Amino acid sequence: MLLLLRGRMSFRHDSLASSERRTKRLLGRRNYDLLKAQKLTPKIQQHGGYKVRDAATGEIVFGEAGYEFSATLEDVEAWLDTLGA
What we know:
The protein has one domain (about 1-85). A 3-stranded antiparallel beta sheet has the order 1-2-3. It is α+β, with helices and mostly antiparallel strands. The longest helix is centred in the first third of the chain and has 28 residues, at about 1-30. The chain contains 3 helices and 3 strands.
C-alpha cells in the first residue's frame, strides 16, 4: 500500500516537472526564462510561484502582479498563448 501511494505522489511530481520543462522550452524559444520561487511565502503558496524574465534584458515581464512570483504555471502557459507560442 505504501509503495502504491509513493508511486502516485511521484507521478504527480513528474507531471509538474514535465510541465515545467515544456514551459521552459517554449519560453526559451522566445528568449524568456522561467523563474521559480526558492523560498515559499504563505502568499506564494496560495497562488503563484513563478515569474518570467526577458533573458536579454533581465527585465521581469510576467508574474509580479502585486507580489513576486505571483503567477502559477497555468498563468504562464496562458500568457504564452497570448504571444502565439
